[in-house]
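Quick illustration, no need to memorize.
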Amino acid sequence: MTSTYTFQGHGPVLDTVLRIHPADGTPPFDAARRLTVPMDYLAVLHRTREVVLRADPTGRSYVVDWARTNLLAGTTAAAVITPDGRELPVTGRPDLIWALMNLLAAHGLSNPTPVLDLRKQRLSPLAGAFMDVVRGMEAEPDPARP
């Protein structure tokens, strides 16, 4: 990222090179973009260099999803509500958040809030798969946690 010394109404404009790692397993590639970083999300870039992108179906257009990037960086509280109503905090667990986001995307689902409520009718058919991901990540030791 480099500054362009330009500021638009929402925030500074940065020249960036995004290394894109497609969730479908195709090889990573680079895409140069000029991005306006909203002021609300500027602090996120101090915590992470990973951003969540939304791509059009042809793969020709990429837009940074700042709200989901905030979740990934741990600057927004995130939780999963299990089918039995328990709340599992996932803030600061980018490995788990990435896995959940990819599972949602693989099934053509979106979750616009920081809470993934598996009791919702549209998510309940996949609740088992989501819980498998959560359990699998809980079984793996997190080196950042003592």
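The chain has a mean pLDDT of 84.
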